[in-house]
Amino acid sequence: MRNLRTKREDVVMISWFSVSRKGRVAHPARAVAWVIFLATAAPWAAYGANGGLVSLKKVAVPEPSNLGTVVKDRNACVQLGKAFFWDMQAASDGAVSCGTCHFAGGADQRSKNTLHPGANKLFEKGAPNSTLKLSLFPFHKLSNPNDRLSPVVSDSDDIVGSQGVVTKNFGGIVLGEAEETGTSVTNPIFNDGGVNTRQVTNRNTPTMINGVYLNRIFWDGRGQNLFNGVNPNGALDPAAKILADDGAGLKPESILIDHAALASQAVGVPGNTTVFTCRASG
Fold first, then answer.
1. Which among 123, 157, 122 is positioned nearest to 140, based on CA atoms?
2. How far apart are CA 247 and CA 7, in angstroms?
3. Is-cis flag, bond preceding 6, omega within 30?
């Protein structure tokens, strides 16, 4: 078996920086650690052979059939996946990890600065950095909640999302420091009195618990079950290549890891300028 960069014998790490992060080194297939780490958390129930409910502890975890091509030590991969899940160096500001928005039952329960104004870019249920209140709900209110055809009393396209990073243009990497340098850029939406606040996503963070059982991930389903080592698109992107060491040097190689929607998801977020990273400069 040929060796992936930095060798397939090495434990595969989560691909935090494999997508468009200036100054970061791209490593192939590191996101597989997501699949292995999250496969260890299975508290929900499933249907048994006789149609009754059984604990997921009795249901086999659908691990990739070709996992051995990228992971040598499964236990070390679990540990590494957990470490990266909570690593705040994933973000440009050194203060946001995946766990930041998945820490409460696998989801985000924060109530402050979690409003996104929706498609019309107008805050109707609050303002940047405001705190949610029970009286604000529901965002789509009917005169008769039990009749979906009853007259609409009020409607807002605001979204309860999750916090991201403050808007900046990328400056550079400081060796030994978690935070990247950058230049503040005024955000016309996410600011409070002219002072930038953390941005908020336009979709709410779902729980990641038992994500290993999902065939597709993200609300729009773009996180494919087959992981190509580069982006969420799986087999839909035949141009996706990782670098493999065949003994003579590094060469482009295609790879598809099955049962790895979590890995596809993991490489789709780090380059997001709302959630994790500075904007590209120049």
1. 157
2. 10
3. yes
Closest CA to 84 of 43, 42, 32, 40: 32
User: Is the preceding omega at residue 138 within 30 degrees of 0, hence cis?
Assistant: yes
CA gap 164, 32 in Å, rounded: 24
Question: Two tokens at 148?
Answer: 């979906």
Residue type, 244: A
Distance CA(273)–CA(22), nearest Å, equals 12
pLDDT by residue (tens digit) across 240-257? 999 988 889 999 999 999
Query: How many residues appear in the chain?
Result: 282
pTM (global) more than 0.90? no
Residue 84 burial (CB count, 10 A) = 23
Going 269 to 240 to 26 to 226, the CA torsion angle's sign is positive
pLDDT band at 165 (very low <50, low <70, confident <90, very high): very high
What's the 3-state SS for the chain? CCEECCCCCCCCCCCCCCCCCCCCCCCCCCCHHHHHHHCCCCCCEEECCCCCEEEHHHCCCCCCCCHHHCCCCHHHHHHHHHHHHCCHHHCCCCCCCHHHHCCECCECCCCECCEECCCCCCCCCCCCCCECCHHHCCCEEECCCCCCCCCEEEECCCEECCECCCCEEEEECCCCCCCCEEEECCCCCCEECCEECCCECCCCCCCCCCHHHCCCECCCCCECCCECCCCCCHHHCCCCCEEEECCCCEEEECCCECCCHHHHHHCCCCCCCCCCCCECCC
Residue 35 token pair: 């699949």
Q: Residue 22 is encoded by which pair of tokens?
A: 């200036």
Question: Which tens digit of pLDDT belongs to each residue from 221-245?
Answer: 999 999 999 999 999 999 999 998 8
Tokens 């975890």 sit at which residue?
61
